[in-house]
Amino acid sequence: MDKLSCSASAAPPPDDTCEALAPEALMDDTDRRLLNRIQSDFPISPRPYAQIGQELGIPEKEIIQRMVRLKECGIIRRIGGNFYPRKLGFVSTLCAAKVPQDKLARFAATVNRYPGVTHNYTRENAYNVWFTFIAPSMAKIEANLRDIAAVTGVRDIINLPATNVYKIRAHFDL
Amino acid sequence: MVDPKLTELEKQIIASIQGDMPIVARPYLAIAERLGVTEAVVLNTLRDLDRRGVIRRFGATLRHQKSGFRANAMVAWKVAESRIDAVGARMAAFPAVSHCYRRTPSDDWPYNLYTMVHAADEAACREIARRMSEETGEADYALLFSRRELKKISMQYFPDLAPDPEEG
After folding, report:
1. What is the pTM of this model?
2. Which B positions 44-83 lie with beta carbon below 8 A of chain A?
3. CA-wise closest residue to A90 among A110, A116, A115, A112
């Protein structure tokens, strides 16, 4: 295995710690092949890394070593399943709010407290806070949005439920 | 709403793989031991969930900022409802587009088609949006660059059934 190492800190770094390092410095071609293979169709078989290793012509042990390093370097966020909320009895939506700067910290903390809020970003727009919300029903989400408005005093919150999905992909070709 | 009719074991197994699975040679054996079932039961249940289309994607999730895609923009489009399926399909075909959704607009936010665009930098995102506009003839759009990540997690669907993170 090559001697590429990640940043000085051993713990998985927050997103900005390795910011100075170009992605090319963190991955070699074998890492790229592995990452292109591992983002979907993770084998449902007793030794998944052995199976991937067979496909790529790399020993299981090396696959595991590379995976551990890519995880430590922060390139891999997690390994696991992603589900269709509807198939599990949940609904999801995208919400946006117009939040004055002096209320932003409180608003973010209030919204982030909901386990069903999975993504939350500030964006450059009059609607400056955008978050996704997953819950057992849309009525529940709307009730939560009313509570958020009441607690934070932020009245301009919009709910933009999806009515059609043309594409959903989280696979990045490296 | 659909009744998904999941068994308790299915929920336990979903809860076991929705977080971050340990990178070990036999990850399913580790899950099986924790749940007190055999590895074969875990594998068969997962295969069945996969066949039923419950699992959207199974594998590694990357920090795309760290893998060369440093900028992302949500591009919101205002498209005539009569054209929206055709336009959505064409925009979805752009490789830089990871998500493309039709959404119900609100009174003071008229945009009804949403695309997530990933690229090396913001200039590249703008250029991709410009090409999408050119190719579809849709000119009414807003680029919303993310400025700060306030939260990003994976949904924990059945938190009571999920493994205790302290257990490792």
Report:
1. 0.82
2. 46-47, 50, 52-69, 74
3. A116
